[in-house]
Structures are given as structure tokens and as C-alpha cells.
Design brief:
alpha/beta, Rossmann fold
Length: about 325
């Protein structure tokens, strides 16, 4: 249901859904990944379509997988079907800005949070768990705004620098690494620490951009961040959420903070259907407009009702779905 609430909160015409294949792509050759992707596409062919189900990339998938999906189903149906998958490369019906969309949206929510709290990004420190597509572009956007990212991590460990990690240099390192990892990254003053230690660093804002359940009942009491902006899906468990709330930690919920990805997919889908493509500037402008508006709506609602942002976001999203259900009625 989380994707349903995310799409509702974002105000886009999707019902929400999730799916995938259980495997470890780091242990697979490109040929093996292609065969898995094409087989998966063939199996879901009966249910996907531009007006029925539109998959997009998530953990360990990207533009290449989306191309394999699109190509497989297009050949099965005997016609080009660009609008049934999003997150495609620009050269194959993709959209300018889609790659950065989720990370840009996360960073926008973080900056909007600082704005309503009247805090200067230049005097704010961040730690980011996960330096994949989302974490990378969130970090780049925050640094451009003047913020200091003092810690980042991926599956190889965490990397801490009290004077700030050189995000541009780290991004270049990851881009050139054969497995797109931080392993081997170095800069003056950088210290490599255990991955979980990143959660316990003294920082203003912590952005979990890795996997579900990263902050749980076993480690939540050690988290020192004053604010958390959830970039991954479900990075804070319900038990941890209660612990953090008791500590006074303010959390921007995942289905608000990371909705830039599904909004970006909606943009790509709309462009594919219309056959007209936007510039990166137009794409980002529309994305920022929606993200800022949604953040302000949830913030004002939560302040007015005196509830946490997570509850305020749920209440806002559920109300939209309830209104739609009431208007449509029941057909038997």
C-alpha cells in the first residue's frame, strides 16, 4: 500500500504497485542479468501496459534493465511500447532529469525542512547511508546548496570526514569503479569506519538511502541526528520510529521524501504518450514545484493537527484516495 499512498500524496494518476526478482546482480554476468530481465518481462507481459501497470527501476536496476524489459515486450506485441516502462536511457525514449529525480526530490525535502526550521544549509551537516543513484544525487544537490556532507556509505563501508566529504570527487570515483562502489576512495582527512557507525555520527540530518529497516529497535537509541529524511523505502522500522519520536527526532517520511522518483516516472510516461520531450530545466522545474508544494502541504497539515509528519502525510494521502473512492462509487 505504500506506493498507493506515495502516488496519492504526489498527486499523480497511478494506483501504486511493486514487484521484482530475488537475485544478487553483483554475482551475475551481464548476459545472466539480461536473461533474467527478459524472462521476467515475458512473465509480466499480460499485466503491464501504458494504462494498466508501468514499472520503473528500483534497487539494483537501472536504464539497461528497463530497455531489456521494453524491448522484450515490444517484440512480443509486435509494436514499440515505450510508455510501459520508465527510467529508460535518453537515447531510447527516456527523459532528461529522470536519473537524478529521486535524489533531487530527497534533497529538496531536506532543504525545505531547513527552510521551515529557519536553519541555514551552510551551517548544517549531513550523513547519507547509501551512495547509489539516490544518495549520490541527493548529496550533490545538498553540496550545491552549501551544506556539508560529513559521511557517506555503501556496501563496502562508511567514509567519514569532519571537514566534509568531497562529493564531486567521490561521485567521480564511483562512476569509474567497475562495480560503482566507494571501495578505494581516498581524500585528505577521510576515515573509513564500519557501515553501521555512520548511523551514530553526530550530525544534523541523517538520510538513509540504502535498504529497508536500516534504523531499527536495536540501534535507534544510538542515532544522534536531529532530523531524518527517509530516502529509502521503509528505512526506519515502526519500533525505531517510536524510539526516535520519544527522543524528539523529526522525520520526513519516505513516501513524501523519495516521491521524486515516481513523479519523475510520471513525467517520462507523459512525454512518451505525447511524443514531446522536455528540456532538463523544464523537467527539474516541474519536479521542484511539486515536491516543494507537497512538503509544504504535509508540514502545514501536521502543524495544524499537531501530529508527526509521517501521520500527517498518511492522513493527507488517505483522504485523497477516500475522496476518489467515494466519487467513483461501486459497480457490481
Amino acid at each position: 500500500m505504500l506506493m498507493t499512498w506515495k502516488c496519492s500524496l504526489a498527486g499523480i494518476p497511478y494506483g501504486g504497485g511493486k514487484g521484482g526478482v530475488e537475485c544478487n546482480p553483483l554475482e551475475m554476468s551481464k548476459g545472466e542479468k539480461e536473461r533474467v530481465a527478459r524472462t521476467f518481462a515475458a512473465r509480466i507481459e499480460p499485466v503491464v501496459g501504458a494504462w494498466s501497470d508501468v514499472p520503473a527501476p528500483d534497487v539494483n536496476t537501472g536504464g539497461q534493465e528497463m530497455v531489456w524489459f521494453m524491448d522484450t515486450i515490444s517484440k512480443m506485441r509486435g509494436r514499440l511500447e515505450p510508455a510501459i516502462f520508465t527510467g529508460k536511457p535518453i537515447s531510447l525514449w527516456g527523459s532528461q532529469g529522470r536519473t537524478e529525480a529521486t535524489g533531487l526530490g530527497v534533497a529538496t525535502c531536506a532543504l525545505e525542512l531547513l527552510k521551515v526550521l529557519e536553519k541555514d544549509p551552510k551551517n548544517t551537516t549531513f550523513t547519507i547511508q547509501g551512495f547509489g543513484n539516490v544518495g549520490t544525487y541527493a548529496a550533490l544537490t545538498l553540496v550545491d546548496a552549501g551544506a556539508k556532507v560529513i559521511g557517506i556509505s555503501d556496501i563496502t563501508g562508511a567514509y567519514y570526514c569532519k571537514d566534509g566529504v568531497d562529493i564531486d570527487k567521490a561521485f567521480q570515483h564511483v562512476s569509474e569503479h567497475p562495480q560503482r562502489l566507494l571501495d578505494g576512495y581516498k581524500q585528505p582527512g577521510l576515515e573509513k569506519i564500519d557501515a553501521e557507525e555512520l548511523l551514530f555520527l553526530d550530525t544534523d540530518v541523517f538520510i538513509p538511502a540504502a535498504l529497508e529497516g536500516a534504523v531499527n529497535k536495536n540501534n535507534a537509541d544510538k542515532v544522534k541526528a536531529r532530523y531524518i529524511v527517509e530516502a529509502a523505502n521503509g528505512p526506519v522500522t515502526p519500533e525505531a520510529d517510536a524510539i526516535l519520536d520519544a527522543k524528539g527526532v523529526l522525520i520526513v517520511p519516505d513516501f513524501l521524501a523519495n516521491s521524486g522518483g515516481v513523479i519523475g516516472s510520471y513525467f517520462e510516461w507523459a512525454q512518451n504518450l505525447g511524443g514531446y520531450f522536455w528540456t532538463r530545466e523544464e523537467y527539474n522545474s516541474r519536479l521542484l514545484h511539486i515536491m516543494k508544494g507537497n512538503f509544504q502541504r504535509v508540514w502545514e497539515f501536521s502543524q495544524e493537527r499537531k501530529v508527526r509528519m509521517r501521520r500527517g502525510a498518511f492522513m493527507t494521502a488517505i483522504a485523497r484516495v477516500a475522496d476518489a473512492v467515494r466519487m467513483r462509487g461501486v459497480f457490481l
